Amino acid sequence: xxxxxxxxxxxxxxxxxxxxxxxxxxxxxxxxxxxxxxxxxxxxxxxxxxxxxxxxxxxxxxxxxxxxxxxxxxxxxxxxxxxxxxxxxxxxxxxxxxxxxxxxxxxxxxxxxxxxxxxxxxxxxxxxxxxxxxxxxxxxxxxxxxxxxxxxxxxxxxxxxxxxxxxxxxxxxxxxxxxxxxxxxxxxxxxxxxxxxxxxxxxxxxxxxxxxxxxxxxxxxxxxxxxxxxxxxxxxxxxxxxxxxxxxxxxxxxxxxxxxxxxxxxxxxxxxxxxxxxxxxxxxxxxxxxxxxxxxxxxxxxxxxxxxxxxxxxxxxxxxxxxxxxxxxxxxxxxx
Amino acid sequence: xxxxxxxxxxxxxxxxxxxxxxxxxxxxxxxxxxxxxxxxxxxxxxxxxxxxxxxxxxxxxxxxxxxxxxxxxxxxxxxxxxxxxxxxxxxxxxxxxxxxxxxxxxxxxxxxxxxxxxxxxxxxxxxxxxxxxxxxxxxxxxxxxxxxxxxxxxxxxxxxxxxxxxxxxxxxxxxxxxxxxxxxxxxxxxxxxxxxxxxxxxxxxxxxxxxxxxxxxxxxxxxxxxxxxxxxxxxxxxxxxxxxxxxxxxxxxxxxxxxxxxxxxxxxxxxxxxxxxxxxxxxxxxxxxxxxxxxxxxxxxxxxxxxxxxxxxxxxxxxxxxxxxxxxxxxxxxxx
Lengths: 336, 336
Prior knowledge:
Two copies of one chain form a homodimer.
Chain A: H1 3-12, H2 37-41, E1 55-63, E2 68-75, E3 78-86, H3 94-100, E4 102-109, E5 112-118, E6 126-131, H4 136-142, E7 147-152, H5 154-168, H6 173-179, E8 190-192, E9 199-203, E10 216-221, H7 237-255, E11 262-267, E12 276-281, E13 294-296, H8 297-306, H9 310-313, E14 316-321, H10 325-332
Antiparallel strand pairs in A: 1-2, 2-3, 3-6, 4-5, 7-14, 8-9, 9-10, 10-12, 11-12, 11-13
Helix pairs in contact in A: 5-10, 7-8
């Protein structure tokens, strides 16, 4: 499988990186053949025992708030990263949970009691992702890094960021696979096929669609000439308005979820350089919905209506991890 | 207690409510004796089956991100609130988790595989808190209000929001007490006394200053004629630049915390109508740092430099809770 598809799959896992800063990286040619049989190459292999021999090397990051952990280790002498995350507690599981779990009293104080509740396995799943074979880049990507806020002028973008993006050869072939229905076609919930203003809308890979609490969808535009916010001008207003209106309608129709409860935004920098828009539940603190990275679609449209070249000229702030190559470029240019 | 003290107290507690902490409330005398036997009063009662007869009435709130749920129901005809939360995944449990869990393959794509992992009960505890008997105050405290995103035009502000603010008599006497050193004077870490461009800087009440992880300070301006972002024009650029520069310097000096790691922003709507600026750690997902409510100070300055009346004329989005009086006003005006 080529490197672009690997990168595509890597990008889909972005939420598993707590700071939401997911950059896809290319895979070296030699790794294409280094299939970790149990995970990747052999459909008949018994995957249910995949992790029984997992050998932990290091914890890359963990979050007590989000109940997840990212582990670097080995499966059958292959480097691997395993990501474990507890699943949300669903209302429809409560009845069975209360009936069939054991409660162990921990503390009692007047009207307050705390317990350890031990549910049966089928009611208490841990979402598990295995990356195998994992490269050094995977390990680095998941390792928790310090973050810094950069201020990028229009000129910085042209002289530092754009050359950097172009030098990295961030391929978006996996995006084209979705647009051309070569991959994930069954996940698309809406499409406007218009080549100028059209897009596909699909659930973000990390939303399991089992509850609305963490509703998360992505609209990916059909046209291939817009890398990010920086490329947007007033010429794109019809496209942006179309995404907003039809995207909100589709989500209402499919999930009964009204637009007034949505947060619709772009990222800058984006995780991949093909224009896409995030639709998340307003009550969900989605990773990357912070003001330092998100830009409300309604604001973007309004800014372009008032000033056609708004995003070409203004200074934009965004966070970068300590190990990000772009941060080094800004340091070299004495812009940080 | 007047409304602004309520608001101040509400501010102080907002993070705790968002975290779902169980804060004890004053209990009416009669309730002290109304013991829910199985949970509270009888040490010999078999608590392990306490919830087997639990009757769910309503879900008060739940978080897919934090993997918790707050449930209102009944235990033996007594009102109760049950709080369930998945526990963090600990490193020391990994070895046993990998050995003794069943993995069920969900999806495989090249080097990436996702699974449902079902651990044995002893490895997968749910932290459970029972409040029984629960009062109406408990139920209301834990009840999550729906939130809606409003779009307020400049005209909406003048015809709906401003009259509403003025009708509510939101007093900011407590703010003046800080500015005049009648209260919290010992918490001020920096002050510029200039009446036009000056401000005080102090830690936000919810930051205990024990770690930088959740660093949070507030700059409150001395001048009393700016309620919010809506009142700002290019006339205020010197004030805003002064807050930014001197605020960042003061934080660097006091805490060794550099500006590149700060998120500096205003809220719209603000919690109180006297201009103030938030300084939070970039790596801390502070409540209210989402794009729907936060406005980077650097962006505000830039917008005013380009367009003096920017915040008078543009449409601003912000979230409102279902029980917010302002939401009713927008509904009455058919703006929602």
